[in-house]
Design a protein that fits this description.
- The complex is a heterodimer.
- By secondary structure, chain A is α/β, with parallel strands linked by helices.
- In chain A, about 35% of the residues lie in helices and about 20% in strands.
- Chain A contains 13 helices and 14 strands.
- In chain A, the strands form two sheets. An eight-stranded mixed sheet of chain A has the order 3-2-1-4-5-6-7-8, with helices on both faces. In chain A, strands 9-10-14-13-12-11 form a six-stranded antiparallel sheet, with helices on one face.
- In chain A, strand 5 and strand 6 form a beta hairpin.
- Chain A is globular.
- Chain B is α+β, with helices and mostly antiparallel strands.
- Chain B has a single domain, classed as Beta-grasp domain (Ubiquitin-like (UB roll)).
- Chain B is globular.
- In chain B, about 40% of the residues are buried.
- Classes of the chains: A alpha/beta, B alpha+beta.
- Chain B: InterPro entries: Beta-grasp_dom_sf, MOCS2A, Mopterin_synth/thiamin_S_b, ThiS/MoaD-like.
- Chain B: Pathway: Cofactor biosynthesis; molybdopterin biosynthesis.
- Chain B: Pfam families: ThiS.
- Chain B: One of its GO terms (cellular component) is molybdopterin adenylyltransferase complex.
- Chain B: GO terms for molecular function: nucleotide binding.
Chain lengths: ~350, ~80
Amino acid sequence: MADGKELTEGMTDSNVPDRYSRQTRFAPLGQEGQRKLLASRVLICGLGALGTVIANGLARAGVGFLRVIDRDFLELNNLQRQVLYDEGDIASGLPKAEAAARKLRQINSEITIESAVTDLEAANIATLAEDVDLIVDGTDNFETRYLINDFAVKRGSPWVYGGAVGSEGHVMVIRPAVTACLRCLIPTPPAPGTGPTCESAGILGPASAIVANFQVAEAIKLLSGNEKALAEGLLVLDLWSNRIRRINTASLREQSDCPCCVHRRFDWLETESGSHTTSLCGRNAVQICPKEKVAIPWDEMAARWRELGKVDVNRFLLRLKVDDVQVTLFPDGRAIIKGTDDIGQARSLYARYVGS
Amino acid sequence: MKIHLLLFAGAAEVAGTSDVTMEVGQAATIGELRGKIVDEFPDLGPIVGRSMFALNETYVSDDAAISDGDEVACIPPVSGG
């Protein structure tokens, strides 16, 4: 038997690169599981504390195609837990999606990494998610999670929910028609500002990392054809009080009168798209998305802003610092206004500096 | 009868404890327990209203009956990431 193992070492199946040998030797995965991973396509939504760990894990594991998206840019306080970034990325003023994609390509140049600096919304979710096998949640808000849930249930494809705050986290694999969905579990979305966020309650790096790694493990099981090994129900963990509970949600699915997965009403997917403004909870910042995507005249805008205040510019974002306000503008007209959580004031700053 | 109440996330933060033994009447339900928790920790009102409840590690609705010695977990949604 030992001889047999020696023989196969270093001469793995030509379809399966040797770089994955340590995980293909894990019997439940094997070469067959690895081949399935290499042929899989995954969308990772959000590249913060969860998303960076998820992307890191799936890229190293050899998932063949990763699309990574995030709407935000990098800040120094991200480095405490967002493992794909370093100080150099912050100095370069890169959006998270671009910095993450560069790092992921260095980690694994043999897979395809696609990135987009964008907010996931009803208008673009089909384009970003219809060609993937699985969506993994690295978002930081319930609005986007309900949108992902709507899309996944409608399409009948799985997604992995994860959330983390403080020292705690939740993980649940959602498989339409097999498990309960997010809306079965939490029928009414928590109103923005009612729950603790990473900004208000803080977040420990190990808490978000462990949640994200649970998500990675479930993703690997799902994509490699090991559905039987999938975790059932909702995992609830608290690293500080040393509690882990796996909540059985089977009855929830049986008794559910869920508007989404039973009555097939997709409220977040069918919302009227268009201009929207979102207060980025606890960050003293507001995001503004114009009704129509526009192409900002980059150099012209940069020149105009230089007369008003301090300007940073690269290919991905344009930033103006004036008084106590920071306006970060993306090429499609989306902006994040920092220095206020008042939506009205943010809109008027957008009108003043970007145009209405 | 006595139950063992576990508070998670924002609920534990607001109540200042994550682990409480509570005295409840016979034939109490999860719905009644929600009220009792708020009586004991008035600040928990909004959080308890939007929390999930698990009885001995199984998700339950408000009409589920509680027995002596049960572990009840109050689990607010976790949105960060």
